[in-house]
Every structure is written in C-alpha cells, then in structure tokens.
Amino acid sequence: MAPAAAGRGQPQFDVAVLGAGAAGMMCAAVAAQRGRRVVLIDHASRLAEKIRISGGGRCNFTNMGAGPANYLSANPAFCRSALAGYTPQDFLGLVRSHRIGWHEKHKGQLFCDDSSEDIIRMLRAECDQGGVRWRMETRVAGVRTDGDAFALDTNAGVITAGRVVVATGGMAIPQLGATDFGLKLARQWGLKIIEPRPALVPLVFDAADWKPYAALAGVAVEVGIATGPAKQGGAFLEDLLFTHRGLSGPAVLQISSFWEPGAPISVDLAPALDMEAELLGAKSGSRQQLGTVLAQLWPRRLAEHWLSAQAGLPEAFAARLADVPDRQLRQLAQAIQDWRLVPSGTAGYKKAEVMRGGVDTRELNQKTMEARRVPGVHFIGEAVDVTGWLGGYNFQWAWASAVACGKAV
Predict the structure, then answer these.
(1) 365 CB contacts (<8 Å, ≥6 apart)?
(2) With contact defined as beta carbons under 8 Å apart, do 182 and 166 qualify?
C-alpha cells in the first residue's frame, strides 16, 4: 500500500522517533515489537556515536545500583516510575540474551567485555526484529500538526505519524552532532524548559588563579569532594585529575552536576586521615621535612607544588616538621582537608558527557513521557530534565524512559 500523503488519510506511521541514539533505538524497538509501525529518524550517517565512544569504547551501559537518589532534577520524584518499571537487571537480561560479554567495575558499573559496538548491534537487531523503518541522514526541519497526526518536514520529504517521540538528546559533545533541536521543539509547543548547562564536565579556573597549580597537570589522587548545601549539594569520594586549566577526573565530573556558578567546591586531599592528628603526631622528635611527610600521602610533585602554593614560599617543602609551629600545622591540616576553590566555569559542552536541565518534567506524564499540553508528543532520555551521576546512570535513564514511552505509544 502506498504511504498516505501529508494531510490526507491515515498517517504513514504510528510512531516517529526522532534520534537514533540510546533512548531512541530502545523506544523504537519496544514500540515496534508491540505492533506499532515505527520510523526512526536521525540526521547522522552513523548510529549512536555517544554509545560508541562511551566507557572508553566499552560502553558503561548501566549501573546495578541505579535508583532515584542517583539523579538530579527540578522534580526529583519524576524518574521513580520509569526506573522502577525497567531496572538495570532488566537491561542486563537483554544484554545476556544477545550473548554480549560484560563485566562489573567498581561501584556497580557494567561494561562490555569487547566493544560498545556490541550494544549498538543489539539495539539495531531489536529494532529490526520489530520491523522499524530507518531514515538515517534525514534532517527534520520542523514538526507540525496534520489533522489528528503530525507531519515532519524533512530533506527526504514529508513523513506523517500518529505520535512523535523526541529522543534527540542534549547539547553535550556537539562535535558528534549534538544539537538543541529537542529543546527547540519543546519551546515551539510552549513547554517549560529547565535552563540547560554542561554536566559531568571538567571545571576550569582563571589563568592567574590557577598558575601555581598548572604544573600539576596529569597528577591524579583520590579525594573527597563536595559543594552546595547539605540537601541540594553533592559529595563524592573519587579520583581527581589536575589539568592545565583546572580539575577533571571522576570526582570533578560528579561534582560538576551539583556546582553552581560562583560557589566554592571543597576538596579533601586526604579523605582517609585526620591530618591534624597526623601532622602533630609526626612532629614530636621528627627530623623529617614537611614535604617528605606529605609526599608519603601524595605523588611528590603534588606535595611540592601544592605546599608551595598554599604557603606562598618555595622553601615550604624543605621546612623541618619539628620547626613548624603547631598553629601552622593545624592551619595546613585544615587546608588539606577543606581546600576551597571557586571555579570560573566549566570546560563547556565540548568536554561534557551530558547536559543537565531540559524539558521540565512537570510538563510530562511520568508513566508515558507524553507532554500534557501536546497530546501525542513524548520526550525521553537526555532531552528531559533528569540527569544521572557518572557511572552508567544516564544510560539507565535512557533505557527506562524509552521503555516506558515505547509501551505507552
């Protein structure tokens, strides 16, 4: 049967999914396997570039501990329903059914044994099983109502569908083709947007302020890191990496999602110790240099440069511990365990793993992801104001929101 022309008869498809990434492919597969006629549209020539590069090429595809507490949103309760409806164990069952080798790293993070390509092939196979129609290298110029359906104006002609699922992701990693198209559509339909910004991203500092620490680029150390008030802030124990412009590594990526511009972050450079007790206890009868003591805790380069920057004296490293007054040792211990810094900003979307913010979840039905004010339009994945921690949580939100939507459409 020939496809219906725009504006006449039945739409060509029951569901048009915009975006062939993690959430889009998952949603298309679920809907198609439930008997829906589904078209999956993407402007790129290759599928799921973000999946491909994730986890160092092995895709940290979920986290076994994923739950509502691991997500940030202006409406924290919204994600509960979808996450309960499709769990990490459910996705792992799908991975096993495709005989994909996997392993668990620390803190519940699951990775492919071989390659992220295994997850992409799995999702494509699931779509093909349901008969999803693919429209790659197809750009959508606009979406408009067409009677009881929707017309999508594309460079390949008009596509009509009874429902539209926006799974176009966020603005992180624009070099892979990320855009704000999903947010533009939401604004077109009058939906409220929680202001987007880079998340899971390195933090940077003014060049003059960072100059004493720039020489530490490449040094990594486990730290405690925190920012914000107790209820709205975050605190993590992870590795921190010094860079030429500021700080990166898992600790900083985690805290960046909680950091507010102008606010300080607190870094504990010796999270397993009581540094005041350590320094005062080591002082008695000691002939050791202060720097030597700290070099037992950290890489020597960190001890040298950090101590010099804090004391403002290049010779601080060589000072005999026994010669340093107790008051100064207490101050030093305080600085080690509560090193306060105020970033000037983030490294931006080019270095961010995800976007925080997006379509306000109060505009959406938590069980179906449908826009309350635009029946027939759904938003899933990163385009929605639900942002997970580092470590597989954002993929789990993609799967869970996609399945909830796929079942609903």
Answers:
(1) 372
(2) yes
64-107 pLDDT, tens digit each: 999 999 999 999 999 999 999 999 999 999 999 999 999 999 89
H or E segment and range at residue 345: strand 345-346
- Which of these, 123, 158, 154, lies nearest to 33 by C-alpha position? 123
What's the rounded Cα separation, in Å, for the pair 351 and 252?
Answer: 12
Six-digit token pair at 399? Answer: 């799967």
Q: Is the dihedral of CA 374, 378, 382, 385 positive or negative?
A: positive
Q: 3-state class of 88 per DSSP?
A: helix
Phi and psi at residue 164, in whole multiples of 5°? -125, 130
Each residue of 361-380: pLDDT tens digit?
999 999 999 999 999 999 99
Residues paired with 248 in a beta bridge: 241
Give the torsion through C-alpha atoms of 108, 235, 51, 401, to 10 deg. 80
CB 329 within 8 A of CB 320: no
Contact in structure between 29 and 173 (CB atoms under 8 Å)? no
